[in-house]
Amino acid sequence: MYVESLRGRDFLSILDCSRVELESLIKLSFEFKRRYYSGEKIIPILQNKILALIFEKPSTRTRVSLQVAIQQLGGHSLYLSSAELQLARGEPIKDTARVLDRYVDGVAARVYRHESLIELANYSQKPVINALSDREHPLQALADVMTMIEVKKNLKNLKIAFVGDGRDNVVHSLMLAIATLGGKLYIATPKGYDPEISLLKKAYERASESGAEIVIVRDAVEAVDNADVVYTDVWVSMGQESERERRLKDLSAYQVNAELVRYAKKDFIFMHCLPAHRGEEVTDEVIESPNSVVWIQAENRLHTAKAVLASILR
Q1: How many CB atoms lie within 10 A of CB 150?
Q2: Which of 137, 206, 272, 303 is catalytic?
Q3: Which H or E run contains 34?
Q4: Quick check: is 35 catalytic?
């Protein structure tokens, strides 16, 4: 009930996993979901394990999925808001890491800066899991891929259109996951919002091995045309509030609405990592449509969290 090769390892990026490891995590996620609905008792493989959750940002899905996941696996979690830790008074991250090392079995951290996550991992002998940074959101990407496979069956045959901010942390992780596993990902984004160049290069490298296609376009219609999956995310993420007006103006042509999705396949699925700002990146009509799978996607955060925690903390 775990991926042995991931035991004790950090999970800061999708790049930390090979294709085989990602496939194994997704397969394990499906097994956990099957057991969740079959009523089969899950073996408490993380009994007496303690996961610390350091969160600099608010969270619903990430926090709850991780806490419920470890509890269902027999372990415990400690939610530690950064405002309540000595981090808020200037204690270095490296000191916090070395103290927690002696108390807990692993740390999941949700941070403003990816560099903070790297420093935490560098000074922690216990595994560190990325629960969101400004660079990546690997836990979300696992649930995204799981959802696509669950609903559409075969990832490699899909055309996936992401419409909006191409430098988004969710896009980065999704891009790396698709590049690793296969599929066609079209990212429709305005100039100045392209994915981070270093991650884009990594995606192209992995795509050359898997046969995936990663394509950056400016026209939302071009991306959505004949798409199997249409995905978007908020235009103003936490920590970007000062850029709100500029972002709304720059991204106004990339709203996912009824007019745009008519270019997709009739049986397309709409995805959003949530929370959604209805009327900005997506209309209420689309997110509440029969094509929307956002609630399945949200639920799958729980099952993929169990797969990650079982594999890393076992």
Answers
A1: 17
A2: 137
A3: helix 19-38
A4: no
In this prediction, residue 1 carries a pLDDT of: 78
Q: Look at residue 247 in the predicted model and tell me its pLDDT.
A: 96
Query: For this structure, is 301 an active site residue?
Result: yes
Which helix (H) or strand (E) segment holds residue 78: the answer is strand 76-81
E strand or H helix at 55: strand 50-55
Query: If DSSP codes are grouped into helix, strand and coil, which group holds residue 288?
Result: coil
Structure confidence at residue 88 (pLDDT): 75
Decide: 46 and 314 in contact? Cβ < 8 Å: yes
Active-site pick, 61, 63, 110, 167: 110
Q: Is 246 a catalytic residue?
A: no
Number of neighbours of residue 16 by Cβ within 10 angstroms: 16
Percent of the chain predicted with pLDDT > 70: 100
pLDDT surpassing 80 at residue 78: yes
Q: Are 270 and 296 in contact (CB under 8 A)?
A: no
pLDDT digits (tens, 9 = 90+) for 261-270: 999 999 999 9
Close Cβ partners of 33 (under 8 Å, ≥ 6 residues apart): 300, 303
**What is the reported pTM?**
0.96
273 is annotated as an active-site residue:
yes
- pLDDT, position 241: 82
According to CATH, the topology of domain 4-136+301-313 is Rossmann fold (3.40.50)
- In the block, tokens 């560099």 appear at 115
Q: What confidence score (pLDDT) does residue 255 get?
A: 98
The residues of the chain that CATH labels 3.40.50.1370 are: 4-136+301-313, 140-297
Q: Is 76 marked active-site?
A: no
Q: Assess if CATH 3.40.50.1370 describes domain 140-297.
A: yes
